[in-house]
UniProtKB/TrEMBL annotation:
This is Probable phosphoketolase. Residues 597-798 form the Xylulose 5-phosphate/Fructose 6-phosphate phosphoketolase C-terminal domain. The lineage of its organism: Bacteria, Pseudomonadati, Bacteroidota, Cytophagia, Cytophagales. Belongs to the XFP family. The keyword ATP-binding does not apply. CDD domains: TPP_PK. It is an enzyme of class 4 (lyase).
Length: 800
């Protein structure tokens, strides 16, 4: 494999930017990082090989991933040089899975690791602990996880590194994110789309992303696509994405060091020139940002062969390249010792086990170290949002159900003023997949634009090089950008159609795990919550049909730790305002808000909404008829449409069976249904029983899948009397009300449920039940004839 560098300045291709002494030191630093990485994978004791290696010095279970590690050590070492040379504010995103040994080694050598974990000291005893903890019970994982200083990206699940990198640099004009992308990771859909982030980056108000595509040729046992296409095809691909690629290819360390130093100098100077030129122009054009392609052998500097099979440069170097135990050939132990000694640790560490001073001086100082950069511990930089008083945006509700409004349209005005108040400097962004207008949040465009740095046409709307709204028709990118934005100390909101938020199920998983883990790490600081606003919901997707009807994200979310997740279903606009204000003020949670966008009846005044949302669950006395008495039945509701249908059902019961004592309970905070010992928001058994009783029938109209309510309440005393109606995976192109009928959530079915479950009624409800069945037949005939719901459905109003 030849060493070549393709750069915009071909005359520099044979330059040697590193003086001989600098080259010697950089190569030694790289060897030290490689030695620490191999030591993490193998060594239980004898960390500096002060005695011959024996099996007693080897971990009983060898775990880790060597293949990507030496290349990342090479990158980290060279990034240290350019940080110091150009005084850069830079963080490191480790995209390849299981690249943890390299980032741990890099942060240990620069001193950050020992500052964060004083027991992992900069001496032989500290090295022993550093090695032992890796992939060891009670220790650290093989990823660059939350425990690793300088990390904002774990990399256990591939595909999100470049999205996180772009999110991190939005509104961070001084920051550069060096994002290492594995060639296996580059095959994922999210990463393949993430290259387009350069069309959304403003060179004046944002920082820069420096992608480093690490082509080492293999995944676990297969070659990678980008490593097996021609240079011309790869170059056309990257240039087609809008990047200027620089190529560093080879395996000979001396030549590779010179080539990498030259490429990084060119790339950094290119970035600085782009930013300077943009700031001096009134209308800067979209630049072609630099990108580095590093092609190096997988498992570089490791064993060339193991048991007669090629190792370095093959898929066999992906994980632990050399098995060493009592059950393996004795030659393996000798080969491991030779491998470790090839890095010449005696030339790297002094008698006490400290990195030699001349090598330690290569690392940047203070917060310029990538492991110590505060942007990688965003809570250190987090500033509170400047929030207006949400009550100022209230819908006037003189009496329940007397006015209609769009819930998200109302909260859009609140968000508009949040955007305006937090625009200088910008500290808040709204992300979404081309749905901000569709989701009725268009008021924000009164004060901002969509950030867009590609070409524009005369008829485009709300597009500008800088703006607080970022939209791309990729839920993966929106999620990744928002996560990167939050992780580096800012605030944001993700709005999406309810059914399609499932696209980021796995990304949500990873972020929730990150929050859970970092909450347990003392030196990590809490960040702003990840806030989802889900609308265009299952009950109002009658025009789009079955494909757009799925409320199951809530089921997925509640699987995560109770200390992290919150789920809210405000029944009207004033409740949504209260919930949104609460979520935007919160820290270190994932908040899911499910709300309506179409005009709908409004139930609570702002004062009543604040009280109701503060409690999260409660009796609506104005809708109930059991004041001071035992109820005959409880009608509970959670969500906007279930609330509407419940109140319509109550009105039917009031008309036909006025003697029934009905209690109406509305749920805003879904997790109030859990027991207090299971979730911080959960009700005690006494409080739950006070609302739902221990023995009365409960008819529960729920926005989502019915079994979620059963799951949350399975251990409540009154569970056997709980009957839940919700979405039953029935949907089509039909009317809004017919969607509820298809799933038996409509007012008529809810009334029949009460008739079936109140024992003292006996046969007195038979005539009413027949009337309701006739109404259901009449409904079907009407919609098939007229294409809309019956007037008594469309024009229904609550009468108190």
């Amino acid at each position: 494999m030849e060493t070549t560098l393709l750069a915009p300045a071909p005359a520099l291709a044979f330059a040697t930017p590193l003086a001989p002494d600098t080259l010697r030191l950089i190569d030694a630093y790289w060897r030290a990082a490689n030695y620490l990485s191999v030591g993490q994978m193998y060594l239980y004791d004898n960390p500096l090989l002060r005695e011959p290696l024996t099996l007693a010095h080897i971990k009983p279970l060898l775990l880790g991933h060597w293949g990507t590690t030496p290349g990342q050590n090479f990158i980290y070492t060279h990034l240290n040089r350019v940080i110091s040379r150009y005084d850069l504010d830079m963080i490191y995103v480790c995209g390849p899975g299981h690249g943890g040994p390299a980032v741990v080694a890099g942060t240990y050598l620069e001193g950050t690791y020992s500052e964060v974990y004083p027991h992992i000291s900069q001496d032989e005893a500290g090295l022993r602990k550093l090695f032992r903890q890796f992939s060891f019970p009670g220790g650290i994982s093989s990823h660059a996880g939350p425990q690793t200083p300088g990390s904002i990206h774990e990399g256990g699940e591939l595909g999100y590194s470049l999205s996180h990198a772009f999110g991190a640099v939005f509104d961070n004009p001084e920051l550069i994110v060096a994002c290492v992308i594995g060639d296996g990771e580059a095959e994922t859909g999210p990463l393949a789309t993430a290259w387009h982030g350069n069309k959304f980056l403003n060179p004046i108000s944002d920082g820069a992303v420096l992608p480093i595509l690490h082509l080492n040729g293999y995944k676990i046992s297969n070659p990678t696509v980008l490593a097996r296409i021609t240079h011309e095809e790869l170059d056309q691909l990257l240039r087609g994405y809008g990047w200027t690629p620089y190529y560093v290819e080879g395996h000979e360390p001396e030549l590779m060091h010179q080539a990498m130093a030259l490429a990084l100098d060119e790339a950094v100077e290119n970035i600085l020139a782009i930013q300077h030129n943009a700031q001096s122009q009134t209308e800067p054009t979209r630049p072609r940002w630099p990108l580095i392609v590093l092609r190096s052998p997988k498992g570089w500097t490791g064993p060339k062969e193991v048991d007669g099979q090629p190792n370095e440069g093959s898929f066999r170097a992906h994980q632990v390249p050399l098995a060493v135990s009592a059950d393996t050939p004795p030659a393996h132990l000798a080969q491991l010792e030779a491998w470790l000694r090839s890095y010449r640790p005696e030339e790297l560490f002094d008698e006490a086990g400290r990195l030699l001073p001349e090598l330690a001086e290569l690392a940047p100082l203070g917060a310029r170290r990538m492991g110590a950069n505060p942007h990688a511990n965003g809570g250190l930089l987090l500033q509170p949002l400047h929030l207006p008083d949400f009550a100022d945006y209230a819908v006037a509700v003189p009496a329940p159900g007397t006015v209609e409004a769009s819930d998200t349209g109302t909260v859009g005005k609140f968000l508009r003023d949040i955007v305006q108040r937090n625009s200088a400097p910008r500290n808040f962004r709204i992300f979404g997949p081309d749905e901000t207008l569709s989701n009725k949040l268009g008021s924000v465009f009164e004060v901002t634009n969509r950030q867009w740095d590609a070409d524009t046409a005369a008829h485009d709307e709300f597009l500008a090089p800088a703006g607080s709204v970022v939209e791309m028709l990729s839920e993966h990118q929106c999620e990744g950008w928002l996560e990167g934005y939050l992780l580096t100390g800012r605030h944001g909101l993700f709005n999406s159609y309810e059914a399609f938020i499932h696209i980021v199920d796995s990304m949500f998983n990873q972020h929730a795990k990150w929050l859970k883990s970092t909450a347990e790490i003392p030196w990590r600081r809490n960040i702003a919550s990840l806030n989802y606003l889900l609308t265009s919901t299952v009950w109002r997707q009658d025009h789009n049909g079955f494909t757009h009807q799925d409320p199951g994200f809530m089921d997925h979310v509640v699987n995560k730790k109770a200390s992290i997740v919150r789920v809210y279903l405000p029944p009207d606009a004033n409740c949504l305002l209260s919930v949104m204000d609460h979520c935007l003020r919160s820290r270190h949670y994932v908040n899911v808000i499910v709300a309506a966008k179409h005009p709908a009846p409004q139930w609570l005044s702002m004062d009543a909404a604040i009280k109701h949302c503060t409690q999260g669950i409660g009796i609506w006395p104005w809708a109930s008829s059991d004041a001071g008495q035992e109820p005959d039945a409880i009608m509970a509701c959670c969500g906007d449409v279930p609330t509407l249908e419940t109140l319509a059902a109550v009105s039917i019961l009031r008309e036909h069976l006025p003697e029934l004592k009905i209690r109406v309970v509305n749920v805003v905070d879904l997790l109030r249904l859990q027991r207090s010992i299971d979730h911080p928001h959960g009700l005690s058994d006494a409080d739950y029983d006070a609302l739902f009783t221990r023995d009365k029938p409960v008819i529960f109209a729920f926005h989502g899948y019915p079994w979620l309510v059963h799951r949350l309440t399975y251990n409540r005393p009154n569970n056997t009397h709980l009957h839940v109606r919700g979405y039953k995976e029935e949907g089509t192109i039909t009317t809004a009300f017919d969607m509820t009928v298809l799933n038996e959530l409509d007012r008529f079915h809810l009334v029949m449920d009460v008739l079936d479950r109140v024992p003292q009624l006996g046969n007195r409800g038979a005539h009413l039940k027949q009337l309701l069945k006739d109404k259901l037949v009449e409904h079907k005939q009407y919609i098939y004839r007229h294409g809309q719901d019956m007037p008594e459905i469309q024009d229904w109003k609550w009468v108190g």
